[in-house]
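Researcher: First entry.
Model:
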Amino acid sequence: MSPNAFSILFLAALTLTLFARLALMLRQIRHVQACRDAVPPPFAESISLASHRKAADYTAARMKLGAADAAVGTAYVLVLTLGGGLQAIHDALAGILEAGTLAHGVALLAALGVIGWAVEFPFALYRTFGIEKRFGFNRMTLALYAADLARETMLAAAIGLPVLAAVLWLMGAMGERWWLWVWLFWLGFNLLAQFVWPTFIAPLFNKFTPLADEALKTRVEGLLARCGFRSRGLFVMDGSRRSAHGNAYFTGFGAAKRIVFFDTLLDKLQPEEVEAVLAHELGHFHHRHIWKRLAVVAAASLGMLWLLGWLMGQAWFFAGLGVAPAAAGTAVALALFALALPAFTFPLAPLMSHWSRVHEFEADAYAAQQTRAADLAQALVKLYRDNASTLTPDPLYSRFFDSHPPAALRVARLRSTS
């Protein structure tokens, strides 16, 4: 393939991906607004028209911001690739650090991380203090936001920089099969993170206290016994410090597994509804969804790393993305691959979303076996209402992006088993 041909292919894929995302977002906005003035019949007795309208407006606001974010993100990728931005950063750093060295490669990738964060920062700030605040969800102060940002930066430096250095070293030292060594390192790092995150990282951002409600604790422990699930403990997280949204999850593997309830969730749901929500989460554990997803991601990552290894030997890959042959090192190759890959993998989005929705249905069915289906249905209705989740998503948009089934379909299935 010639560099010009690859440039055209990349530009076409990037443009089509952007237009597809914008078209789907526009469909979503139009659909939820068209359904704004009528609550779907299955929810008419439990969700008010005011709440339904709020969900439509909240969804539309998020879609509009997402569309702007997508457009700016696409322009950012074009500037770095065909616009010569990555080459310029490489050359600028070469005036300080010797090009091709490990230090130069880490500095290049770190610089891209900082620039990418700077591009995304205005959208993240408006999402939190604009949209979330306008719809009554944000509870974060500027001081807390700044503190979170400082902690995230320190973690990125303390963990991210050594990981980048290790990956680049493996790419340069392990010969033609470097991609296999990088994959093994990546797999080991991700498994280690499952043990480290709940115990050491998450407490840096939130306070976790043992579940104090004895009645709820007894109910939950009974559910865990029925499901054969052992955890390190039941904890309540102070999610209300940052948001009014509620959730529950379990995290970690082996002895590090712990169950976490947002305090906002416990405030909104009855004990039997909390039990049903947890039973849904345990359904993912029962069906080994996390391991299945990890296996698919691991296999895909191995394939992607092999592909990167092949592309590094193709001059047209670098030249076609705006990089001169002299700058065609491991760090540049890794950066170009990360920038270009999403444009070519976008068509896989509906497949992954469909697989995730299948898992959600399986977890719902498991919860209906372990608790009352009506309790889970009622809990979901409350969460849809309180989180301003739209009850009327555009079907095509939902198929592409939604990891959870549409509310009406999900609740209908549960009510049919009650």
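Researcher: Second entry.
Model:
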Amino acid sequence: MNAADDTRESRRCPGCQVVLPVSNWSGGPSGYNASPECAEVAGALLGYEVDHQAALGHLHQLRIDAYGAQHVGPQTRPITTVFALNGLYMYFERGSGNLDVRTAHGIMANSYSDWPVLTPPDQVGTLTAHAVLQAAPEGVRAVEHLLIEWARQVWEAWPGQDRQLVGDLTVQLVPARHFHR
């Protein structure tokens, strides 16, 4: 689906701001601040990841967290936002992968409940799940590269004080011995 070339009615995603042709997809935005069309793209990107599990499986949690941190809205639960940012923090600042992030989420969920309410910046990166999926014809390595760049943009778009807060919460709540290095 190429949003720029389509002449049908389109809709802007409230989270990432991508404009996509209106679809008939009935899946809904799955709790994210996302248009149904953007949620459909996120599902298609998951499908691409599953089809290329050997090459992209190590980025599964990063994809989830980039999408989550880019689609925070007024109805997003504070824990959801913190967890998405925690996954990005762990990948970019600690070099951690899927297992470490899921372990941290489990420990954090069971040891803390006063989650801060974080408000996303107006623009949470310029890349989107749609842009990553559009790289598929170039091959799995292009998708891998763009997915990492997308996640990096999302992480760096959040205010420094929010990134610091999430990093501090991670260090406070998750002892280093729990990481699988």
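Model: Note on the second entry: The first strand starts at residue 10 and ends at 12.
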